[in-house]
UniProtKB/TrEMBL annotation:
Organism whose genome encodes this protein: Chloroflexus aggregans (strain MD-66 / DSM 9485)
CDD domains for this protein: PAS
Name the record gives this protein: PAS/PAC sensor protein
PANTHER family (UniProt xref): BIOFILM ARCHITECTURE MAINTENANCE PROTEIN MBAA, DIGUANYLATE CYCLASE DGCP
UniProt lineage: Bacteria, Bacillati, Chloroflexota, Chloroflexia, Chloroflexales
Cited Pfam families: PAS_8, PAS_9
PAS domain segment(s): 30-99, 161-216, 264-309
PAC domain location: 217-267, 335-389
InterPro entries xref list: Biofilm_reg_signaling, GAF-like_dom_sf, PAC, PAS, PAS-assoc_C, PAS-like_dom_sf
PROSITE patterns from the UniProt entry: PAC, PAS
Length: 487
C-alpha cells in the first residue's frame, strides 16, 4: 500500500512538472511572438520596473525613430523618466501610476531637445509600468492649426468658404459668410457655389474651380445675396486635402466700396483730363506725378516727358527767389496759394499763367501732394498791354505839333511799348488812301481795325466809314500782318 501511494505521488509530481514545463514553453513562445510583434510595431511598447530598483526592462526599436534614442543607450544609461517629460506633466504622470492605469497626451522630449506629442496608455502590474505610446504630433499640430484657423475665420471680416472640389458644394462657412449672404451656416452648407454666383458668371465657374484646385487663383466676380441683390467680390481660392477629401479653400472679399471708390476716381480722372484748364499734380517736393492734356497744349511737354521732372523745368527766370520762397512757405503751411507767373514753354517761348496751388494732406495731416490748376492768361495780359500802349499813343499824339513829329512819336511808342509785327501808316491824298510808311513791329489795334472796312494790296479801295483819322486830319494806322490775328 505504501509503495502504491509513493508511485501515485511520483506520477502526480511528474505530471505537474510536465505541465509546468509546457506552460513555461508556451509562455516563452508567447513572449517570443510578442517580442517579434513589438519589434515590428510603429508605436513605442515598453515595460518599466518600479521596484525594487527602477529600471527599463523592455522597449521596442520604435523608440529610436520617435525619440531618437538607440536601444543600447537606453538600457545601459537610462536617463530617467523625468528627462523625457514636460515638467508641467510630471505630477500628472505620478498620480496616474499611483492609480494603477492611465491615458494622457504626453508632451515628450526627444534626444535632440525637440518635443513630440505621444498618446500614452499604460497599466501598473507586478510593480512595473507596461504601456504603449503612439506619436500623434502631426494630428496635434493639425488640430492646433485648425483651431487657429477657425478662430481666424470666425473673426475675420472676409468670407471664408470650404467648397468641395468635385461638385462645388459648400462644406463650411464662417460668420462673415452668414452676414454677407443672409443665410445661416446650416443653410449655406446645403447649397453650392453656383447658388451664390450671379447667373451671368456661371459659364466661368468650372474653369475657375479647376484653376483653384491645381495652382490657386485670384479673380473678381459677382455674388448674390439671399434677397437677390448682387455685389462684387474678389475671390482667392486654392485646393487642399482635408479628411481625405479635396476641398477648395476660398477667401472672398466684398469689394463694393473699392469699386465705388474706383468709379469715383475714374470719373475724377476723366473730368480732369477733359478740363481745358491745365492741371498738374506733384509730390510734396514739387516733382510732377500727373498732368492733363491741357498741360501739353500749354507747355509743349508731353506727359511722359514731364512726369518725374521738377516743376522748375517751366521756370523762366522772370520771378526772383523771394517770390518762390513766399509761395512755398504758403503751401507748405497747408494753405492755398494764388497768383500769376511767367513761365517758359518747351520751345523757349514765354507765357503768362494764373494759378492756384492747393496742398493735399494724408489722414495724419502730412502733406503728400500739391494740385496746381492753371489758366493761360497770355492773351488777357497782351490786351492789357495793348490798352496801356493805346493810352500812351493817344497821349503822345495829342501833343504832336506836326505830321512828321506825329509819325516819329507813333513809331517810337509802337516800338517801345507794343512790339508789333508790322504796322502800316496810311496818308489820305488826292488820289485816295496810300501807304505812307512801314514801321517796326506791332500787334493789331482793334480800335483801328474795327473802323477799316477793307484794305487793298497797296491802296484802300474804300475809305472807312467813318475814317479813323489821327490829329492833322490825314493819317491812319492799320496792321499789315499779325501773329495773333491772322486776318
Amino acid at each position: 500500500m505504501i509503495l502504491a501511494a509513493n508511485v501515485a505521488q511520483l506520477i502526480e509530481s511528474r505530471r505537474h512538472a510536465i505541465e509546468r514545463d509546457a506552460a513555461q514553453a508556451a509562455l516563452a513562445q508567447s513572449e517570443a511572438r510578442f517580442r517579434r510583434l513589438a519589434e515590428q510595431a510603429s508605436d513605442i511598447i515598453f515595460r518599466y520596473r518600479l521596484q525594487p530598483n527602477p529600471q527599463l526592462d523592455f522597449v521596442n526599436p520604435a523608440v529610436t525613430s520617435i525619440l531618437g534614442y538607440e536601444l543600447d543607450e537606453l538600457f545601459n544609461q537610462f536617463p530617467g523618466v523625468p528627462s523625457f517629460l514636460d515638467p508641467s506633466q510630471i505630477g500628472q504622470v505620478e498620480r496616474l501610476i499611483e492609480q494603477g492605469r492611465g491615458q494622457l497626451l504626453l508632451h515628450t522630449r526627444r534626444r535632440d531637445g525637440n518635443y513630440v506629442w505621444l498618446d500614452l496608455r499604460f497599466v501598473v502590474a507586478n510593480d512595473a509600468v507596461e504601456g504603449i505610446a503612439r506619436d500623434v504630433t502631426d494630428q496635434v499640430l493639425a488640430a492646433a492649426r485648425l483651431v487657429r484657423y477657425e478662430l481666424l475665420s470666425a473673426h475675420t471680416r472676409d468670407i471664408v468658404l470650404f467648397i468641395r472640389a468635385g461638385d462645388g458644394r459648400i462644406l463650411e462657412a464662417n460668420a462673415a459668410a452668414e452676414r454677407a449672404y443672409g443665410y445661416s451656416r446650416a443653410e449655406l452648407c446645403t447649397r453650392t457655389i453656383f447658388d451664390l454666383r450671379a447667373p451671368e458668371t456661371h459659364p466661368y465657374i468650372l474653369d475657375q474651380m479647376r484653376q483653384a484646385d491645381t495652382g490657386g487663383v485670384l479673380f473678381e466676380t459677382l455674388h448674390v445675396r439671399r434677397d437677390g441683390s448682387v455685389f462684387p467680390v474678389e475671390v482667392s481660392s486654392t485646393g487642399a486635402d482635408i479628411d481625405g477629401e479635396r476641398v477648395l479653400l476660398s477667401v472672398i472679399r466684398d469689394i463694393s466700396e473699392r469699386k465705388q471708390a474706383q468709379a469715383e476716381l475714374d470719373l475724377l480722372r476723366r473730368a480732369l483730363t477733359a478740363s481745358d484748364q491745365t492741371i498738374v499734380i506733384t509730390d510734396s517736393d514739387g516733382v510732377i506725378e500727373w498732368v492733363n492734356p491741357a498741360f501739353t497744349a500749354l507747355t509743349g511737354y508731353r506727359a511722359e516727358e514731364a512726369i518725374g521732372q521738377h516743376t522748375r523745368i517751366l521756370k523762366s527766370g522772370k520771378q526772383d527767389r523771394a517770390f518762390y520762397a513766399t509761395m512755398w512757405a504758403e503751401i507748405l503751411n497747408g494753405r492755398t496759394w494764388r497768383g500769376t507767373l511767367i513761365n517758359r514753354r518747351k520751345d523757349g517761348s514765354l507765357y503768362h499763367e494764373e494759378l492756384a496751388i492747393t496742398p493735399v494732406k494724408q489722414e495724419n495731416g502730412v502733406i503728400a501732394h500739391f494740385i496746381a490748376v492753371k489758366q493761360d492768361i497770355s492773351v488777357r495780359v497782351q490786351r492789357e498791354q495793348q490798352q496801356r500802349a493805346l493810352m500812351q499813343l493817344s497821349a503822345a499824339m495829342r501833343v504832336a505839333q506836326s505830321c512828321a513829329e506825329l509819325i516819329q512819336t507813333v513809331v517810337h511808342e509802337l516800338q517801345a511799348l507794343v512790339a508789333a509785327q508790322s504796322v502800316v501808316f496810311w496818308r489820305f491824298k488826292d488820289e485816295g488812301w496810300q501807304i505812307e510808311q512801314l514801321a517796326g513791329e506791332a500787334i493789331r489795334f482793334d480800335w483801328v481795325a474795327d473802323r477799316l472796312a477793307t484794305v487793298g494790296s497797296d491802296t484802300i479801295q474804300r475809305a472807312p466809314t467813318p475814317p479813323t483819322v489821327l490829329p492833322g486830319g490825314e493819317l491812319v494806322i492799320v496792321p499789315l500782318t499779325c501773329s495773333v490775328c491772322p486776318e
